Amino acid sequence: MMVKAIYPGTFDPITNGHIDLVKRSAKLFEHVVLAIATSSRKKPLFDLQERVEMAKASLIDVPNVTVEGFTGLLADYAKEKDAKVLIRGVRAVADFEYEYQLASVNRTLYSELESVLLTPSHEHAHISSTIVRDVAAHHGDVSLFVPPLVADALVQKFNK
């Protein structure tokens, strides 16, 4: 039985922590879809197409991963993709509480969907897209937190 997993998020921008979770997930499941949400509520720095392209370029070396943008309910998207597993990263207890609620809602909306919570690798535990954007906005060096193409895109966004 092929198990397809979805790792959803806004990925604004994708970080080395996200990439680490995707690569680890790709070892556990036959196929992983990195599902990038439009998320107009969060007012992303990068538009959906930019986020998709950066993620695709960052994950080009992982053959069983695809990157797609999506809109709407995650449970509906997972059902459409026939995914049975939802990957989520948890860095702290606060993340766990939110993810527990989210998992319950998603399972109510799509009973076949199971959530798998992964903790970050030690070297990536402190990284978040929000922190990366804040550092970049103040012209700090983000090269240790994101792939080079993402670091370049952040420099371009904040040097306009």
Automatic annotation (TrEMBL):
Pathway where it operates: Cofactor biosynthesis; coenzyme A biosynthesis; CoA from (R)-pantothenate: step 4/5
Recorded catalytic activity of this chain's protein: (R)-4'-phosphopantetheine + ATP + H(+) = 3'-dephospho-CoA + diphosphate
Gene Ontology molecular functions: pantetheine-phosphate adenylyltransferase activity
Primary location: cytoplasm
The enzyme's E.C. designation: 2.7.7.3
Domain of life according to the entry: Bacteria
Positions bound to ATP: 10-11, 18, 89-91, 99, 124-130
Binding site for substrate: 10, 42, 74, 88
PANTHER family listed in its UniProt record: PHOSPHOPANTETHEINE ADENYLYLTRANSFERASE (PTHR21342:SF1)
Family, per entry: Belongs to the bacterial CoaD family.
Name this protein carries in UniProt: Phosphopantetheine adenylyltransferase
Origin species: Psychrosphaera aquimarina
Lineage of the organism: Bacteria, Pseudomonadati, Pseudomonadota, Gammaproteobacteria, Alteromonadales
